[in-house]
Amino acid sequence: MIAMKFWKMMLISSMMLCACQSVDSKADRQKFRDADANRDGKLTLNEANRYELVRVFASIDYDSSGSVSWSEAKDIDPDFRYVKFQQYDRNGDGKVVFNEFFREQVSKGGVKLRFDGADVDKDGFVTLKEADARVQFLQSQAGEVME
Ligand SMILES: [Ca+2]
Ligand SMILES: [Ca+2]
Ligand SMILES: [Ca+2]
Question: For domain 43-140, is the CATH number 1.10.238.10?
Fold first, then answer.
């Protein structure tokens, strides 16, 4: 198993605002539609957080039990501290359920930085057009890095 830093999962996960892994803009558009929960053609930070964090959570919850145990967290990041796990586990039952994970991540900003980066006109929404532009920008950056 690949050891990944717990908090880096956020950066690695492939959302349309990231596009680090994906160079398929069709797939990115599908992700945008999936993330747009109320189908109004634009994403709020809350929609972006929910969409991305559901995926991150699912990738940490290896046995698909609906919660992340201490051993699952430890598998992903051997350096992950128990005190941090306790921060996530608000009710102290030894399991981190999605709502606990979500609250903790959002309290740290969630995907806010990337969201703000994509929200070019700063109206609090990321439109498909803005998401497309962001993907193209990131692809051009990735191209430069590879040269
Ligand atoms: Ca689990
Ligand atoms: Ca718990
Ligand atoms: Ca906008």
Answer: yes
What is each CA distance from 87 to 84, 105, 138, 140, in whole angstroms? 5, 11, 33, 38
Q: From the CA of 105, how far away is ligand 2's center (Å)?
A: 14
Find out whether 120 and 133 touch, Cβ atoms under 8 Å. yes
Model confidence pLDDT, tens digit, residues 36-84: 999 999 999 999 999 999 999 999 999 999 999 999 999 989 999 999 9
Nearest ligand to the C-alpha atom of residue 57: 1
What pTM value is reported for the model? 0.74
